[in-house]
Amino acid sequence: MQPDAAAIQQLFDRIAPLYDRLNDHLSFGTHRIWKQMAIAWSEAQPGDTVLDLCCGSGDLALLLAEVVGSTGTVVGADFSSAQLEVARRRSYQQLREVEWVQADALALPFSDNRFDAATMGYGLRNLTDIPQGLRQLYRVLKPGAKVAILDMHRPQSAPMQAFQQWYLDTLVVPTAQRFQLKDEYAYIAPSLDRFPCGSAQVQLAQSVGFEQVVHYPLMGGMMGVLVACKPPA
User: Fold this and answer.
1) What distance in Å separates the CA atoms of residue 176 and residue 182, rounded to the nearest whole number?
2) To the nearest 10°, the Cα dihedral for 209, 59, 225, 37?
3) Is residue 36, in this structure, part of any structural domain at all?
4) CA distances (Å), 96 to each of 30, 113, 181, 228, in order?
5) Interatomic CA distance for residues 20 and 191, integer angstroms
6) In the predicted model, is pLDDT for residue 225 greater than 90?
7) Taking the CB of the first residue and of the last residue of the chain, which one, N or C, has fewer CB atoms within 10 A?
8) Pairing between β-strand 211-218 and β-strand 223-229 as defined by DSSP bridges
């Protein structure tokens, strides 16, 4: 059963203070490499106006700020006020300019054709209406712009599924329990079960109008990046 948006929002508010620390620990730091790959696939360039949707504590948005430089603009949008507060503190400490916006990914408060590129890290899986989220991304991207969407997945092969379940049971949940966040991180497994596989994501992106849609599996299919392009005008 898909949890409602309010429950998901409250979950990410609760985990905000430890979100970065846990991500580093649970991925052994490799999430930073995956985020750099997503940025490369988004084809964000110096001077661009770019969106990082479901920006959380700001990792991707701050990396994008390096890419677009002083002549570009980065907007980090998330529905969790607690996550955005962490992101604001980080951007202040790192002296990087990012516009932080509290927003619903299913009803973005941005004009049509605004962004030259977009990224999303670990957000698509948590949307209550994935097609609507993709439609909103399509709407706010400029013609010819690309989006790169990074997320966890259920692997297709049985051995990798078994490994992922072992990883969740023996590392993720016990680690979260030590931080008194066991219930908050227990949501991962059921969210993976609900999440469309890579080929299904490609079809969903194509159904809302995206072209040149490719899904790149990573880590034996446990991670993946969906890359899609809005057709040129």
Assistant:
1) 5
2) 110
3) yes
4) 23, 25, 30, 27
5) 20
6) yes
7) N
8) antiparallel
CATH number at residue 139: 3.40.50.150
What is the mean pLDDT of the segment spanning 65-74?
96
Helices (H), the chain: 5-15, 19-27, 31-42, 59-68, 81-94, 130-140, 158-167, 173-178, 182-185, 188-194, 198-207
State the total domains in the chain: 1
Cβ atoms of 146 and 229 closer than 8 Å: yes
Q: Identify whether the C-beta of residue 228 lies closer than 8 Å to the C-beta of residue 213.
A: yes
- Residue 56: name the closest of 87, 92, 29 by CA: 87
Q: What angle do CA 21, 53, 103 make, to 5 degrees?
A: 105
- Per the CB < 8 A criterion, the answer to whether 119 and 30 are in contact is no
Residue 64 lies in a domain: yes
Structural domain includes residue 15: yes
**Structural domain boundaries enclosing 142:** 5-155+194-229
Specify which residues 102 forms β-bridges with: 78
Whether residue 204 is contained in a domain is answered as yes
State pTM to two decimals: 0.84
